[in-house]
Amino acid sequence: MEIKFIAVGGTIDKVYFDSLSRYEIGESNINDILKDGRINFKYKVSSILKKDSLDMTDQDRLIIHQAVQAEINDKIIITHGTDTMIETAKVLADIKNKVIVLTGAMEPAKFKSSDAIFNIGFAVAAVQTLPHGVYLAISGKIFTPDNVMKNRILKQFEEKM
User: Fold this and answer.
1) Known binding-site residue numbers for substrate
2) Which is catalytic among the residues 11, 79, 88, 103?
3) Is residue 11 flagged as an active site residue?
4) Which CATH number does the domain housing residue 93 bear?
5) DSSP character for 40?
6) Which among 36, 80, 100, 158 is least buried, having the fewest CB atoms inside 10 angstroms?
């Protein structure tokens, strides 16, 4: 079994640049997170976009869809910005015979207080145990794209009421 990680940007990969006093999306943090976690499975990482999810377009979602569709591995984790993660998950819903799990973070992975490490580990467990389909693994829960919303006040995802 091999897990494919596809990084498309988002807060999870943001880094702080003092000279600009703002954040910018840097290299994917997935390899560092997995190395520090002493994982025991095969994986590959591809970074296909470096975008804040608020800047993600339909064309970007098509690029993600094509990459997932073309992937030979049937277990795929996508790291994505949390603001439009749900929209991307819905676009991927027509892909069959794969377990696709989207995750991200509310704070950059480089921050000690970030939820990134937990969410990556949670997504790894989810992608290995769920049946084929598209899911979000974040905030300690597994969601389907049609039954989830982001609660910006609490900085977490929750089921739609």
Assistant:
1) 53, 82-83
2) 11
3) yes
4) 3.40.50.1170
5) -
6) 36
